[in-house]
């Protein structure tokens, strides 16, 4: 029987092979998946048309970023919104190829790409092109957030066109491999750009303890990654008697001085994205989704889901470019919130979490860290972070952190930290043993810390007592992994499963050249990594 769709870009993909039926595991219907393929093909056509332009218009790049972001897992479930993005992409391409529109025999150079060609291709070529495409999708999210704050980089912008162009070409493995590594190189620059955008706009994050208690009265939950949206929401709700609570990847916002100065930014609601259908069930408040991590809402709260930017779901109220959050504010006042304070906990029963240990904070006490390592007080660092997800097996990360020896430090980032960030593991030399460095894009900060420590000890990064134990779910994890590989980081443990889009030959290449390995058990991995 012919497949209704094909999608294997996220960790939960059906049978660790690909979603091919009437809907994906994420809830995306086959019609929607096919429209996202059509949009991707249109973006490749736009990149082809822009390839010969020495100075493409800003609208070309913004359209490519929006389109790639739209196709990330758990962003858009709205067919009409995707169709509008396809039309916008075609309109931008028409501006570039209008001089040859009258030709009776078009060259086909700027045609939309048929994604079925990719999905049906040789598995090794498909694997490499998927690494490029999915890496570009993840990187597009970071470039998009930076752009919202007025920050751009010409090299990053141009590479989106170069990468998409390559996906549509008939290239060999030898030609594709350098492009795969180039994705990691450019993503490092993109994450640095976003880091600068965030810190120059909102200040350097500072360690901040965040309560999980929800106070009485009207409130709004804001989830996703976009700090600009949170800033605007805080400004528009000031003095209105409405409290704001972060959710998921928005938690690190509490550490930024320019955001935390708002007294009605109160705390964090719930845990990671995959628990939203349970945690939002019947919630007496609206939820604003600013980026990916939207799951199909249950009827008990569907009427209070609001989306913005490229996030979309049929029937949900969408806040457009005007960023007028009045509908969200009115819904919060209408629902009224809880009548009395509502205590919440993390998955381990903790009542508060701490964030704000970005590279600025950690490097400010680098001398203490170096001395603690030299004295033997700190024997090893583990970076345990990445995406969370619903598939069984992710309790591995909780157990790994619990079992990590008392003389080890846990650096963490992204929503994978919700598996253990409410644990109290004590301190070493006045530093908490769990240090939350921020969102997934703050992997840049972890890299900066690793480089600084390597300089301090006069060794290479791979010679540090530092190990990477990563969880992945969607495409931003792909571009971060490629960045680590670009930097030559070895012996990464990856789980809970390896990506379905890695063919046996490509996986063998990664194992042989970078020592990538799947997670096993916490006991075995801790022993091996500390050997």
Walkthrough of the structure:
Residues 100-106 have low confidence and may be disordered. The protein has helices at 30-50, 58-70, 79-97, 115-119, 123-148, 154-167, 173-202, 227-237, 257-260, 276-279, 326-335, 359-364, 366-375, 395-403, 443-457, 475-486, 504-514, 522-530; strands at 208-211, 219-223, 243-247, 265-268, 287-289, 305-308, 317-319, 352-355, 380-386, 408-412, 427-428, 431-432, 434-436, 466-471, 493-495, 517-518. It has a 6-stranded parallel sheet with strand order 4-3-2-5-6-7. Strands 13-10-9-14-15-16 form a 6-stranded parallel sheet, with helices on one face. It is built from 18 helices and 16 strands. Helix 8 (227-237) links the parallel strand 2 (219-223) and strand 3. With 531 residues, the protein is of the alpha/beta class. Helix 1 (30-50) packs parallel to helix 3 and helix 5 (123-148) runs parallel beside helix 7. 51% of the residues are buried.
What attributes does this structure have?
alpha/beta; 6-stranded parallel β-sheet; 531 residues
Please write out the topology.
Layout: H1 30-50, H2 58-70, H3 79-97, H4 115-119, H5 123-148, H6 154-167, H7 173-202, E1 208-211, E2 219-223, H8 227-237, E3 243-247, H9 257-260, E4 265-268, H10 276-279, E5 287-289, E6 305-308, E7 317-319, H11 326-335, E8 352-355, H12 359-364, H13 366-375, E9 380-386, H14 395-403, E10 408-412, E11 427-428, E12 431-432, E13 434-436, H15 443-457, E14 466-471, H16 475-486, E15 493-495, H17 504-514, E16 517-518, H18 522-530
